[in-house]
């Protein structure tokens, strides 16, 4: 089993190749939003919201999604401050990545998630999704927003 460290975006792109399904993750304290994209890297789709409890349970759920969807790489939302600096949430995300890399052997990269929740909320608003459903699905839609930004970067 190959082991990975956190990869820069360009290294990650080379590792996963041009036709591979990716998973986008928006990690939070209470929930982890999950999205997946098609193998052509055209569209990211909200997939699931995982309730955070024990790391073991989160890893099991992520592994199940990865196996069922033939995922070849993981894009994790990186909460950078608006001024570009890294704060506590950034370090927490990097710790999360270190923990999942102990149990999941796939390439992982970080993608700037500034304004992803706001962008996801606005896109759901345009689809006339009711408020309670917006809140329930915000994390997975944020993950899709993050993953879509990354696959758009890959396609440029």
User: What is the gyration radius calculated from CA atoms?
Assistant: 15 Å
Our measurement of the CA-to-CA distance between the termini, rounded to an integer number of angstroms, reads: 31 Å
CATH homologous superfamily placement? YqgF/RNase H-like domain
Major sheet size, sense and barrel closure: 6 strands, mixed
Q: Which fold name is given in CATH as the topology? A: Nucleotidyltransferase, domain 5
Provide keyphrases for this structure.
Nucleotidyltransferase, domain 5, 46% helix, 6-stranded mixed sheet, single chain, alpha/beta, 156 residues
Describe the structure.
The chain is of the alpha/beta class. The protein has a single domain, classed as YqgF/RNase H-like domain (Nucleotidyltransferase, domain 5). Helix content is 46%, strand content 24%. The protein has a six-stranded mixed β-sheet, sandwiched between helices. Helix 4 packs across helix 5. The mean pLDDT is 86.
Produce a short descriptive summary:
With 156 residues, the protein is α/β, with parallel strands linked by helices. The chain has helices spanning 9-16, 55-68, 88-101, 116-126, 131-154, and strands spanning 6-7, 21-27, 31-37, 44-51, 71-78, 108-112. The protein has a single domain (6-154), classed as Nucleotidyltransferase, domain 5, CATH 3.30.420.140.
């Amino acid at each position: 089993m190959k082991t990975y460290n956190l990869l820069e975006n360009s290294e990650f792109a080379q590792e996963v190749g041009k036709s591979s399904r990716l998973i986008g993750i928006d990690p939070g304290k209470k929930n982890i939003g999950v999205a997946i994209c098609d193998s052509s890297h055209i569209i990211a789709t909200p997939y699931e919201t995982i309730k955070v409890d024990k790391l073991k349970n989160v890893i099991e759920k992520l592994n199940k999604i990865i196996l069922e969807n033939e995922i070849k790489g993981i894009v994790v939302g990186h909460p950078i401050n608006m001024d570009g600096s890294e704060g506590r949430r950034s370090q927490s995300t990097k710790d999360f990545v270190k923990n999942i890399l102990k149990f999941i052997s796939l390439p992982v990269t970080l993608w700037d998630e500034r304004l992803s929740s706001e962008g996801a909320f606005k896109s759901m608003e345009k689809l006339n999704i009711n408020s309670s459903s917006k809140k329930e699905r915000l994390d997975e839609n944020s993950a899709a927003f993050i993953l879509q930004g990354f696959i758009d970067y890959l396609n440029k």
